[in-house]
Amino acid sequence: MWLLVLATVLAALAAVAVPEPSVPPPREAAIFADLSAEELRAVRAFLMGQPELGLAPSRAEPLAKNSLFLVELLPPKKRLALRYLDQGGPAPRRQARAVVFFGAQAEPNVTEFAVGPLPRPSAYRPLRLKGRRTVPFAARPVTALEYELLHRKLAEATAPLYRLLRDTTGFWYHNCSEHCLTFSDVAPRGLVPGERRTWFMLQRFVEGYFLHPVGLEVLIEHSATDPGRWAVQCLWYHGHYYATAEELAQRYMQGALPTARLPPPPAAPVFSSYEPRGRFSTGTPTDVHGAKVCEPQGRRYHLRGNHLEYGGWSLAFRLRSSAGLQLFDLRFNGERVAYELSVQEAAAFYGGHSPAGMQTKFLDAGWGMGSVTYELARGIDCPEVATYVDVHHLYDADGPVRFARALCLFELPTGVPLRRHFDSNFRGGYQFYAGLEGQALVLRTTSTVYNYDYIWDVLLYPNGVLEAKVHATGFIHATFYTPQGRRYGSRVHAHVLGNLHTHLVHYKVDLDIAGTGNSFETVELHLENISNPWSPGEPGIHACPLLGSQGWEGRGTVGCRGTWCPWGPTWCRFCRYHLAVTRHHENEATSSSIYNQNDPWEPVVDFEGFVRDDESIEDEDLVAWVTVGFLHIPHAEDVPNTATPGNAVGFFLRPFNFFDEDPSVASRSTVIVRPLDATASHVQIQRWTPASPGPCVSPGPFTYNGTYWQE
């Protein structure tokens, strides 16, 4: 069996990179490959040419139109893929998933379609989402066009506040060309199904504007497809609520409004900037390059299209626009370990005194989490020697958009041996020393969801261990400081409150261990007292037997409940379980959706239904749903950004009595040292790699003595 280990890190309260040559993937991996730019264009052209759909360009006005929002690969059904991969059956038809906003209808809705066959589509059919044929229009993600119209509404709404904002912040929103304000919006957009009411928090538009709230938040109702019917419903300013902007402006002009005047931002560097400032007390140099990753004898992995091989590992990968990294057909030494491992959702639940704090419950799939995979910086986000991969997204755009270097692969020295032993003779010498270099292959991408940056990693180790990990960095979600806000976070700067929040990340792990017929078993350790068998009458000893299947007998869907879910029963329901195990169903492909953010009360995908089926999970095709997360109480050291140390969570897949021995014995990166005399002045060194790794590490060969004589 394989053991799923949750390695959550709970914070106390987080070569020149040119495009690689295009090498087609093996046919087995090609069925999981993302749509090419040509395929994306073909799908869009086909749908735009269907008169019954009445599609118009996405970015152009008006809002009340039918438009194509998203196109991505529609993965093949598992049974068809396995028939092709394992039984020599026909290749599954290649199809696209297309999301269409029907805004020009009397009752607007969102409908998803399967479009195919690719690369030359000729037909489409509606997809059903857990029994639904359409999605409520209010549940749709916000488009760039809607944001532009909201920007105009905010400019109109804040016009009466020009003097107040200019006097107290030095910036304004209405009719602005410099010293401008900008905004961040929060979600969910309302309190009940069908609403589309959003709180907007105004900020000074300087570098790192997320840390520059000015204390004004505006609630806009924008459910209508006609922006002329949108309305401001409420304002929050420095701890108090106002019905209209005119009321707030009048209070200011009458001198009846308590205000805080913000100092002008310095010319440079502003506190939210990355520009260096200050000095380390030791004086050690930081203006020279630090340690680097190198490949002294070249790459030790193979990449063909979306197919990756490293040591015993092989897998196919894609970077889907809707939710991010997705791996398929994961094998070790040719035997499948998992059919799928994928990111499902990233949630962040906040507390606060202002609406932009207390209302914020982010579900990042609803913000295009998979489509914001911006370029990885060579030497910072990934080593210089990494292989960089471009991707194409068609998300809220009128054609495919190329994201250069959106994904990288590299072999990483872990800095700790995979295993080692010093076999002492307890007389100042040793029988042997042996060790295996610690390395792992890293598959990495990022998602920059407005203020936060997620770094998504999958690490493949030569001993058959897989690690899935995410680091959280970027700017904190900050609101304007008020004394009442101290209950909900920390004062990280003069007028800035870092709001308390919980990060939760959900993964799907479709394990297929020695086939699809798997069972779920827990192993627990219990302490028991037994009599001393070799000395009767003496004090007893403790034994710790392993008890398998404790509490579960293979019947019923299993959920191991967690304690960190901070919201009500209808929200982001996966967070109630550290681990849930369910039967595989084709209509339970994902635990969340791009629509759950804006309609969490009646979610299109309701994960709770997955675990309420009470189906047998004994010798069945099982899926493990894993939740990892941490509590983040912001602090001054989160300025300018949250740092990655202490803000990473993840889990491991580890073999457990699956192999006869550690499979990393096949690695030739082992070194064995045996002394040839008592003083170890002569040693025998066995290694299966070149004596020296090359000048990028050290010009000299490997040496070792290992003695520990008293001097």
UniProtKB/TrEMBL annotation:
Keyword Signal found: yes
Q: Where is the signal peptide?
A: 1-19
Post-translational modifications reported in the UniProt record: Topaquinone (TPQ) is generated by copper-dependent autoxidation of a specific tyrosyl residue.
Q: Which GO terms describe its molecular function?
A: copper ion binding; diamine oxidase activity; primary methylamine oxidase activity; quinone binding
Tell me the InterPro entries matching this sequence.
Cu_Am_Ox_Cu-bd, Cu_Am_ox_TPQ-bd, Cu_amine_oxidase, Cu_amine_oxidase_C, Cu_amine_oxidase_C_sf, Cu_amine_oxidase_N-reg, Cu_amine_oxidase_N2, Cu_amine_oxidase_N3
Pfam family membership, one: Cu_amine_oxid
Domain of life, per the record? Eukaryota
Which cofactors does it use? Cu cation
Alphabetical GO CC annotations of the entry are: plasma membrane
**Domain Copper amine oxidase N3-terminal, first and last residues per copy:** 140-239
Q: What EC class is this?
A: oxidoreductase
Keywords attached to this Swiss-Prot or TrEMBL record, sorted alphabetically, are:
Copper, Metal-binding, Oxidoreductase, Signal, TPQ
Family classification: Belongs to the copper/topaquinone oxidase family.
Q: What protein name is recorded for this chain?
A: Amine oxidase
- The organism encoding this protein is Crypturellus undulatus
List the lineage, top down.
Eukaryota, Metazoa, Chordata, Craniata, Vertebrata
